[in-house]
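Appendix B, example 12.
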Amino acid sequence: MFFVYPIGHDQETYSRPWFTWGVIAVCALVFTWMQVAAQASTERVVYASMALDQARKEHPGAGLAQAQVDAAPPAVRPWLQELVNEEGAVSEDLDVAAADLIAAVQSLPILRVGYVPVEKRWSRAITSMFAHAGWMHIVGNLFLFFLVGAILEGFWQPAAYVALYFGAGIAGVVAHHLTDPASTVALVGASGAIAGCMAALLIGFARTRITLGWFLWIAIYVRAGRLQVPVWVLAPLWGGLQLLAWVQGDKDGVAYGAHVGGFVFGLAFALGADRLGWIARDGGHL
């Protein structure tokens, strides 16, 4: 088992990264809400599923209307589709149980804020950037964002930095959508936006050294350490690995398309920002 994780950088900063801290705070609040709400919503889904199964047993000849199934979240629609029988007997119990299940699934936090490609709700492209699926997801993302964002916010014009963050995040969602527009899985996470910020470091801060911690564990052999890697090596290497995984169609639950989309946008936007004079270069590294 081998882990690599960022733990610092050697770039001097001269101001407090208020926007970066604000994004981290919002993500933390959203994550807390999701953790609390998920437990109640999951229990509600379980009970609703049991009630629907019971209604099916008690009314075997009854069926659901197609319109009711079409209104269900995509994740549960295939299951309900099996119950469609508009010529069958009418059962209020079955209709109520199905409606309860639909409402329960819709109450799941990840479906309320995440972007589901097949639904094409583009407002979720924004909300999904502040939601995360688990502790490892949010800690890894936000710590990296803290390191990268503190550098960018200190040297970019404020409006340009905000535009970079949201633009890269939206670009990541679009790329993810194009990868699998029929997907019923919700996309959450600030990875696309953070990928854009990483790419933006290449313009003006390519020589900044990122400190990486590493941990190796093979049976009883355990080693750990740290090393410094310049941005001009680390960012392209990371971006290339994301692109390779995306092209190969890796199915490990990571939204590689979002990473690639955000990275490409961030690099292009930073090039434009540099030409327009929106980036103040630090003589200590350039």
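The longest helix spans residues 18-58. The chain has two domains: 2-31+121-275, 40-111.
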